Amino acid sequence: MTPIKLTVSALAVLAASTSLAAARDQIQITGSSTVLPYSTIVAEAFGENFDFPTPVVEGGGSGAGRKKLCEGVGENTVDIANSSSRISQSDIDLCKANGIEEIMEVRIGYDGIVFASDVNGPDFALTPSDVYLALAAKVAKDGAIVDNAVATWAEVNAALPAQDILTLVPGTKHGTREVFDIKVIEAGCKDTGAYDLFLAAAAGADEKEKKGNASKACLELRTDGKSIDIDGDYTETLARLETDKKAVGVFGLSFYQNNTDKLKVATMSGVVPSTESIASGDYPVSRPLYFYVKKAHIGVIPGLKEYIEFFVSDDIAGPDGPLAAYGLVSDPELKATQEAVAAETPMGPLE
Length: 351
Hints:
- The protein is about 35% helix and about 20% strand.
- It is an alpha/beta fold.
- The protein has 2 domains: about 15-110 and about 290-340, D-Maltodextrin-Binding Protein, domain 2 (3-Layer(aba) Sandwich), CATH 3.40.190.10; about 110-285, D-Maltodextrin-Binding Protein, domain 2.
- Helix 4 (about 130-135) packs across helix 6 (about 175-190) and helix 7 crosses helix 8 (about 205-220).
C-alpha cells in the first residue's frame, strides 16, 4: 500500500469543562480482546504510514473499555473503545453523566464465535440445544424444570463424544459473552422448550417483564465446574485447554484460525465456521465488531480522525485488506461507514 501523508490536525481547546489544556500526541485505545489484534494491526500500519505516533492499544474487555471511554473528556481519558458487542444504554447514560454528549459508532466488520477443543481430540458437531443442555443450571425434562445433572456430552446427545463436560466460556465482562448468551444459550433454551416453562412460571408486572425474567433464567449456567468463566483473553482460554485436553473452549474465529495447529473447531448446526460461512449468513453464531470514538477528542488528539478513516478504508478493512487476511469478515456496508466517519456523524438513539 502506498504511504499516505496527511496534515496533522490543528490542536484545539475544548470547553473549560473538559479540562483539556494541551492534547496528548498519541491516540489511546482500549477494550475488546477480540478487536485487539485488528486494532493493533491498524495502529502499527498507521504509525508506519502517517506522521503521527503509533496509537497505544490495550485490551481489558468490551464492557470495561466502554466504561473507560465514558469516564469523561480530557487528556487523561481514552479516545476509542474497541467492542465486540454493541454499546448499551447504560454506557451511553454514563457518558452523558460525565459530559460526553456525542459518540461515534464505527462498525469494522464481522466475526464469529467458535467452539474448539484439542486438535487431537474427538470431533464435535454441536447445536445451541446441545450447549444449553450441557451448561444450563436448569433444563426442561418431562415438562418440568429440573436441576441439570448430566456429566458427559454423550448424555446430552448420543452423537457427541462420551467425554466429561468441561467448557471454558467468556466471562461476563467480554463482548463475546453477549453473543454466546443470546445466540447459543438463549437460542438453545428456546429450542428445548425450557424458555416456555420459565415464562409460564415467571414473575412480572407485565408480559415484557415476564419475558425478560424468563430470558434471565435461561442464561443461568451451572456452578458445579462444568462451565468455567474465563475473564482473561483467548490466550488464557487456550492455556487452560492445553492443561486439560478434554475441555471445550469458546474463541473468536480469527483466534482459532491463527491456532489451527492446536485447536479443532466444532460445527454449529451443521455449519463449519469460516469467513465465507459468516459472510453468507449461514453460520449462526456471528456478531458485528465495533469501536466507539469520543467525538470531542477529534481535532484535539493529533491524528484521531485520520486513524479512524484509515481503519475503515478499503485498503485496510476491505475484503482484500490485512484485516480480512487475519480473519475479519469485511462489512458489506463499509462504504456507508466510511461516509459516516468522514462526516463525523455521531450515533443516534439505540434501536
